[in-house]
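Could someone model zinc ion with this protein?
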Amino acid sequence: MKKLETIVTIDQVPIDVEFTCPYCEANISEGFEDFLDDQGLSWSDFYDRQHDPIKCPFCENEIEVSYEFD
Ligand SMILES: [Zn+2]
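Reply:
Sure, complex below.
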């Protein structure tokens, strides 16, 4: 019998994010879900190579961003 195939998706579950605002130098550390909510992002946005700027929750300046996974 021919073997059938499936794809197993392994979820990466980030818990917290951390960044420093280059404008007001605030250190922001928050839960990943809160970060997505605050920034109006969704998980699928991270598959895109083009990232929209994020907004500092303190001074509200827009920040160019790249992501790295720990
Ligand atoms: Zn700021």
